[in-house]
Design a protein that fits this description.
This protein is an alpha+beta fold and 84 residues long. The protein is built from two helices and three strands, in the order βββαα.
Length: 84
C-alpha cells in the first residue's frame, strides 16, 4: 500500500498583458490509483517575481514578459489609480 503525491499544472494566458494563471492539481494515489485531487490557483502579473513559481511559469514569463509589455501593464495600472 504505497501512497504517492504528484502535481499537474495548467497555465492560462490572459490578454492583453499576458497575465499568467497557474492551476496546480495535487493528486494523491494509492498503489497507482488516484484517490484524491485538489486544486490551487495562483495568478502572476507582468513584472512579478516568478523565481519561486513552477518551472513552466518561469519559462512562459521569460518568453512573454518583455520589458515593453511590463511597462505597458504598469502604465495601465497607474492610469486606473485615482488622482489624490
Amino acid at each position: 500500500m504505497a501512497l504517492t503525491e504528484s502535481f499537474e499544472y495548467k497555465l492560462e494566458i490572459i490578454p492583453p498583458y499576458s497575465i499568467i494563471q497557474c492551476r496546480r492539481a495535487d493528486i494523491i494515489s494509492k498503489d497507482g490509483a488516484e484517490i484524491a485531487r485538489s486544486y490551487h490557483r495562483t495568478v502572476y502579473f507582468p513584472g512579478d517575481d516568478v523565481s519561486e513559481a513552477p518551472q513552466e511559469v518561469q519559462d512562459v514569463a521569460g518568453v512573454l514578459w518583455t520589458q515593453e509589455l511590463i511597462d505597458a501593464y504598469l502604465a495601465s495600472i497607474a492610469a486606473q489609480q485615482p488622482d489624490v
